[in-house]
Amino acid sequence: MDVLSRNNVSVSGADDAPSMLFAHGFGCDKGMWRHVAPAFEPSHRVVLFDHVGAGHSDLSAYDPDRYSSLQGYALDAVEIVEALDLAPVVFVGHSVSAMIGALAAADRPELFARLVLVGPSPRYIDDDGYRGGFSQQEIDELLETMDGNYLGWSQHIAPVIMGVPDRPELGEELAGSFCRTDPAIARRFARTTFLSDNRSDLPRVTTPSLVLQCRNDVIAPMEVGQYVHQQLPDSHLVVLDATGHCPNLSAPDQVVEAMQRYLAA
Question: Which residues are part of the catalytic machinery?
Answer without folding.
Answer: 95, 217, 245
